[in-house]
Amino acid sequence: MYSWIIWFHIVSFVSWFAAIFYMPRLFVYHKEHEDNAGFLEVVKIMEYKLYKYIGVPAMWATILSGAALIYFSTSEYGVNLFKTGGWLHAKLLFVAILIAYFVSLDFMRRSLANGTSNKSGKFFRFYNEVPTILLLIIVAMVIIRPF
Questions:
Q1: Where do runs of H (alpha helix) occur along the chain?
Q2: What per-residue confidence (pLDDT) applies to 76?
Q3: What is the pLDDT of residue 79?
Q4: Sign of torsion, CA 70 139 143 15?
Q5: Which of 3, 14, 63, 88 has minimal CB crowding within 10 Å?
Q6: Helices 2-32 and 56-77 meet at what angle, rounded to 10?
Q7: Global pTM?
């Protein structure tokens, strides 16, 4: 069962990151084509559906499967991951930052949808780099377990 949970966790976080990586790119298109009303309506729908129907379920699937992995590691294998070093604490800290980033995407999506966003396409290009850095750190915490 543990292997299936790992599989589900990986599929979940890949799906979540797909949404996380694509949302700011849609925001760039949104800001850079504000003069095209028809295009904006399509982008608004894409932003909404990507966030609500892919991103949110994938986030919760990632969180719940990650919690299950921690639980089953302790109960099934007798390994308390919280006592194997600070790597898990660090990973969970960066996951919490990633969740905050994901929630910020919804605030930005809403402000773009109602026309109150003062962010530029350039800002969203930069903002799109944040999850890449978080992904590298989070995966390193699991694979390398540096401390």
A1: 2-32, 37-49, 56-77, 87-113, 121-127, 130-143
A2: 67
A3: 73
A4: positive
A5: 3
A6: 160
A7: 0.91
